[in-house]
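Data card: per-record layout.
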Amino acid sequence: MSNPLKVLNAKRDLTENQRKRVMLIGSAGSGKTLSICTLPGKKFIYAFDPTVRETVVGEENVDILEFLPSHDEADLAVQTLKKGVRDPARARSEPKQYVAWEEDWHKRIEANFFDQYDWVCFDSMTNFSDLIMARVMFKNGRYGKQPEQADYGAEMTVMRNVIADLTNLSSNILITAHVEMTKDEYTGRVHGQIMFTGKNRIRVPTKFTDIFATMVEESDKGGAKFLVRTVPDRLNPVVRVSRTLKSKGLQDIEDVTVDFSQDLSGQGVGRFF
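The structure for this 273-residue chain is written out next.
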Protein backbone atom coordinates (compact mmCIF):
# COMPACT_ATOMS: atom_id res chain seq x y z
CA MET A 1 0.00 0.00 0.00
CA SER A 2 1.48 3.36 -1.03
CA ASN A 3 1.94 6.15 1.46
CA PRO A 4 -0.75 8.79 0.78
CA LEU A 5 1.32 11.55 2.39
CA LYS A 6 3.37 13.74 0.07
CA VAL A 7 6.82 14.89 1.13
CA LEU A 8 7.33 18.57 0.35
CA ASN A 9 10.64 20.20 -0.34
CA ALA A 10 11.11 23.33 1.77
CA LYS A 11 12.51 25.37 -1.16
CA ARG A 12 10.57 24.12 -4.18
CA ASP A 13 7.16 23.35 -2.69
CA LEU A 14 6.65 25.62 0.29
CA THR A 15 5.74 29.27 0.59
CA GLU A 16 5.33 31.11 3.86
CA ASN A 17 1.74 31.27 5.07
CA GLN A 18 0.63 34.87 4.51
CA ARG A 19 -1.93 34.59 7.30
CA LYS A 20 -0.46 36.30 10.35
CA ARG A 21 -0.91 35.10 13.91
CA VAL A 22 0.34 37.87 16.17
CA MET A 23 0.64 38.14 19.93
CA LEU A 24 1.34 41.33 21.89
CA ILE A 25 2.52 40.90 25.46
CA GLY A 26 3.26 43.62 27.96
CA SER A 27 2.20 45.52 31.02
CA ALA A 28 -0.99 47.58 31.24
CA GLY A 29 -0.68 50.88 29.38
CA SER A 30 2.17 49.77 27.13
CA GLY A 31 0.24 50.26 23.88
CA LYS A 32 -1.19 46.81 23.11
CA THR A 33 -4.74 47.92 22.30
CA LEU A 34 -3.62 51.02 20.42
CA SER A 35 -1.42 48.81 18.25
CA ILE A 36 -4.54 47.01 17.01
CA CYS A 37 -5.73 50.31 15.54
CA THR A 38 -2.52 50.56 13.49
CA LEU A 39 -3.03 47.24 11.68
CA PRO A 40 -3.90 47.56 7.98
CA GLY A 41 -7.45 46.85 6.90
CA LYS A 42 -10.63 46.18 8.83
CA LYS A 43 -10.41 44.93 12.41
CA PHE A 44 -12.86 43.07 14.64
CA ILE A 45 -12.10 43.01 18.36
CA TYR A 46 -13.58 40.75 20.99
CA ALA A 47 -13.12 43.10 23.94
CA PHE A 48 -12.77 41.57 27.40
CA ASP A 49 -11.11 44.64 28.89
CA PRO A 50 -13.31 47.62 29.87
CA THR A 51 -10.70 50.09 28.61
CA VAL A 52 -10.75 48.90 24.99
CA ARG A 53 -13.54 51.23 23.88
CA GLU A 54 -11.74 54.31 25.23
CA THR A 55 -8.64 53.39 23.22
CA VAL A 56 -10.31 52.64 19.89
CA VAL A 57 -13.03 55.35 19.95
CA GLY A 58 -13.22 57.23 16.66
CA GLU A 59 -11.56 54.52 14.55
CA GLU A 60 -13.62 53.88 11.40
CA ASN A 61 -12.12 50.46 10.58
CA VAL A 62 -12.48 48.94 14.05
CA ASP A 63 -15.56 47.02 15.22
CA ILE A 64 -15.74 45.76 18.80
CA LEU A 65 -17.98 43.42 20.74
CA GLU A 66 -17.64 43.53 24.53
CA PHE A 67 -17.98 40.66 26.97
CA LEU A 68 -17.56 42.05 30.47
CA PRO A 69 -18.60 40.63 33.86
CA SER A 70 -21.77 42.19 35.25
CA HIS A 71 -22.22 43.63 38.73
CA ASP A 72 -24.53 40.75 39.63
CA GLU A 73 -21.60 38.33 39.16
CA ALA A 74 -19.25 40.24 41.46
CA ASP A 75 -18.19 38.82 44.83
CA LEU A 76 -16.81 41.69 46.90
CA ALA A 77 -16.85 39.94 50.27
CA VAL A 78 -13.54 39.32 52.03
CA GLN A 79 -12.25 35.77 51.77
CA THR A 80 -9.01 34.14 52.85
CA LEU A 81 -6.90 31.25 51.64
CA LYS A 82 -7.99 29.26 54.68
CA LYS A 83 -10.83 26.95 53.74
CA GLY A 84 -14.24 28.21 54.87
CA VAL A 85 -12.89 31.44 56.35
CA ARG A 86 -14.62 34.39 54.68
CA ASP A 87 -17.32 36.97 55.12
CA PRO A 88 -20.84 36.01 53.99
CA ALA A 89 -21.33 36.56 50.28
CA ARG A 90 -24.34 38.28 48.80
CA ALA A 91 -26.47 36.38 46.33
CA ARG A 92 -24.69 36.25 42.97
CA SER A 93 -25.98 35.47 39.53
CA GLU A 94 -24.63 32.64 37.42
CA PRO A 95 -21.53 33.75 35.44
CA LYS A 96 -22.64 33.60 31.82
CA GLN A 97 -20.20 35.84 29.97
CA TYR A 98 -18.04 32.96 28.73
CA VAL A 99 -21.13 31.03 27.61
CA ALA A 100 -22.40 34.12 25.80
CA TRP A 101 -19.06 34.55 24.04
CA GLU A 102 -18.91 30.85 23.05
CA GLU A 103 -22.39 30.99 21.50
CA ASP A 104 -21.53 34.19 19.66
CA TRP A 105 -18.26 32.72 18.37
CA HIS A 106 -19.89 29.61 16.92
CA LYS A 107 -22.67 31.62 15.24
CA ARG A 108 -20.20 33.97 13.58
CA ILE A 109 -17.95 31.12 12.43
CA GLU A 110 -20.90 29.26 10.91
CA ALA A 111 -22.12 32.43 9.17
CA ASN A 112 -18.62 33.19 7.78
CA PHE A 113 -18.92 36.54 9.53
CA PHE A 114 -15.17 37.01 9.95
CA ASP A 115 -14.49 36.77 6.21
CA GLN A 116 -15.19 40.52 5.92
CA TYR A 117 -12.34 41.37 8.30
CA ASP A 118 -8.59 41.50 7.72
CA TRP A 119 -7.89 40.98 11.43
CA VAL A 120 -9.74 39.24 14.26
CA CYS A 121 -8.43 40.29 17.67
CA PHE A 122 -8.89 39.22 21.30
CA ASP A 123 -8.14 41.94 23.87
CA SER A 124 -7.16 40.77 26.34
CA MET A 125 -6.65 37.05 26.88
CA THR A 126 -5.80 37.81 30.52
CA ASN A 127 -9.35 38.95 31.18
CA PHE A 128 -10.77 36.28 28.88
CA SER A 129 -9.17 33.63 31.10
CA ASP A 130 -10.99 35.15 34.08
CA LEU A 131 -14.32 34.59 32.31
CA ILE A 132 -13.36 30.97 31.70
CA MET A 133 -12.30 30.46 35.32
CA ALA A 134 -15.53 31.94 36.68
CA ARG A 135 -17.53 29.50 34.55
CA VAL A 136 -15.33 26.55 35.50
CA MET A 137 -15.67 27.26 39.21
CA PHE A 138 -19.44 27.63 38.86
CA LYS A 139 -19.69 24.25 37.16
CA ASN A 140 -17.42 22.72 39.82
CA GLY A 141 -19.60 24.11 42.61
CA ARG A 142 -16.88 26.42 43.89
CA TYR A 143 -18.01 29.77 42.50
CA GLY A 144 -17.07 32.46 45.02
CA LYS A 145 -14.41 30.29 46.66
CA GLN A 146 -10.67 30.01 46.14
CA PRO A 147 -9.72 28.08 42.97
CA GLU A 148 -8.39 24.55 43.37
CA GLN A 149 -6.06 22.52 41.16
CA ALA A 150 -8.94 20.98 39.21
CA ASP A 151 -10.24 24.46 38.37
CA TYR A 152 -6.89 25.55 36.99
CA GLY A 153 -6.58 22.39 34.93
CA ALA A 154 -10.02 22.84 33.38
CA GLU A 155 -9.37 26.52 32.60
CA MET A 156 -6.10 25.60 30.86
CA THR A 157 -7.86 23.05 28.65
CA VAL A 158 -10.59 25.47 27.60
CA MET A 159 -8.02 28.17 26.81
CA ARG A 160 -5.97 25.80 24.62
CA ASN A 161 -9.11 24.74 22.75
CA VAL A 162 -10.09 28.36 22.12
CA ILE A 163 -6.60 29.24 20.87
CA ALA A 164 -6.59 26.19 18.57
CA ASP A 165 -9.92 27.23 17.04
CA LEU A 166 -8.88 30.87 16.76
CA THR A 167 -5.62 30.07 14.97
CA ASN A 168 -7.55 28.06 12.37
CA LEU A 169 -9.35 31.18 11.11
CA SER A 170 -8.58 32.27 7.56
CA SER A 171 -8.21 35.89 8.76
CA ASN A 172 -5.12 37.33 10.36
CA ILE A 173 -5.42 37.15 14.12
CA LEU A 174 -3.98 39.10 17.03
CA ILE A 175 -4.28 38.56 20.76
CA THR A 176 -3.00 40.60 23.67
CA ALA A 177 -1.90 39.37 27.07
CA HIS A 178 -0.41 40.93 30.16
CA VAL A 179 3.02 40.12 31.55
CA GLU A 180 4.15 40.08 35.15
CA MET A 181 7.69 40.02 36.49
CA THR A 182 8.50 36.91 38.48
CA LYS A 183 11.59 35.66 40.30
CA ASP A 184 12.88 32.14 39.70
CA GLU A 185 13.01 30.40 43.06
CA TYR A 186 16.13 28.43 42.12
CA THR A 187 18.28 30.92 40.21
CA GLY A 188 16.92 34.14 41.72
CA ARG A 189 16.73 35.68 38.23
CA VAL A 190 13.81 37.91 37.33
CA HIS A 191 11.99 37.27 34.05
CA GLY A 192 8.73 38.19 32.36
CA GLN A 193 5.89 35.70 32.59
CA ILE A 194 2.72 35.81 30.50
CA MET A 195 -0.33 35.78 32.73
CA PHE A 196 -1.61 32.42 31.54
CA THR A 197 -2.13 29.38 33.74
CA GLY A 198 0.61 26.77 34.09
CA LYS A 199 2.08 25.31 30.90
CA ASN A 200 -0.18 27.48 28.76
CA ARG A 201 2.53 30.13 29.21
CA ILE A 202 4.61 27.90 26.93
CA ARG A 203 1.96 26.17 24.82
CA VAL A 204 -0.07 29.21 23.73
CA PRO A 205 2.88 31.18 22.26
CA THR A 206 3.80 28.22 20.02
CA LYS A 207 0.65 28.92 17.98
CA PHE A 208 1.79 32.40 16.92
CA THR A 209 4.07 33.54 14.11
CA ASP A 210 5.04 36.87 15.64
CA ILE A 211 5.26 37.78 19.32
CA PHE A 212 6.15 41.32 20.35
CA ALA A 213 6.80 42.64 23.84
CA THR A 214 5.31 46.12 24.25
CA MET A 215 7.00 48.77 26.37
CA VAL A 216 6.55 52.43 27.20
CA GLU A 217 9.06 54.95 28.45
CA GLU A 218 9.34 58.70 28.86
CA SER A 219 10.21 60.52 25.66
CA ASP A 220 13.04 63.06 25.46
CA LYS A 221 10.51 65.44 23.91
CA GLY A 222 8.01 64.90 26.71
CA GLY A 223 5.11 62.51 26.85
CA ALA A 224 5.41 58.78 26.22
CA LYS A 225 7.42 56.78 23.71
CA PHE A 226 6.03 53.36 22.82
CA LEU A 227 8.38 50.54 21.87
CA VAL A 228 8.23 46.85 20.94
CA ARG A 229 10.91 44.23 21.37
CA THR A 230 11.29 41.91 18.37
CA VAL A 231 13.95 39.52 19.69
CA PRO A 232 13.91 37.55 22.94
CA ASP A 233 15.75 38.61 26.04
CA ARG A 234 15.83 37.47 29.66
CA LEU A 235 12.69 39.41 30.54
CA ASN A 236 10.77 38.36 27.42
CA PRO A 237 11.99 34.89 26.40
CA VAL A 238 8.99 34.05 24.15
CA VAL A 239 9.40 37.04 21.82
CA ARG A 240 10.08 36.20 18.16
CA VAL A 241 9.18 37.31 14.63
CA SER A 242 8.60 35.39 11.41
CA ARG A 243 11.14 35.01 8.66
CA THR A 244 9.29 37.57 6.53
CA LEU A 245 9.55 40.25 9.20
CA LYS A 246 13.20 39.42 9.86
CA SER A 247 13.91 40.04 6.17
CA LYS A 248 12.55 43.59 6.58
CA GLY A 249 15.47 44.38 8.85
CA LEU A 250 13.60 45.05 12.07
CA GLN A 251 15.71 46.40 14.90
CA ASP A 252 15.81 44.55 18.23
CA ILE A 253 13.69 47.37 19.65
CA GLU A 254 11.41 49.36 17.35
CA ASP A 255 9.80 52.71 18.11
CA VAL A 256 6.05 52.32 17.46
CA THR A 257 4.87 55.68 18.78
CA VAL A 258 2.00 56.97 16.64
CA ASP A 259 1.04 60.40 15.35
CA PHE A 260 -2.60 60.95 16.31
CA SER A 261 -2.95 63.75 13.77
CA GLN A 262 -2.60 61.13 11.01
CA ASP A 263 -4.49 57.95 10.12
CA LEU A 264 -3.29 55.31 12.59
CA SER A 265 -3.43 52.49 10.03
CA GLY A 266 0.09 51.65 8.86
CA GLN A 267 1.80 53.39 11.76
CA GLY A 268 3.43 51.71 14.76
CA VAL A 269 3.17 47.92 14.78
CA GLY A 270 0.91 48.16 11.71
CA ARG A 271 3.80 49.15 9.47
CA PHE A 272 5.34 45.68 9.94
CA PHE A 273 2.40 44.11 8.07
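Known properties of this structure: The mean pLDDT is 89. Residues 149-166 form the longest helix (18 residues).

See the next section for split statistics.
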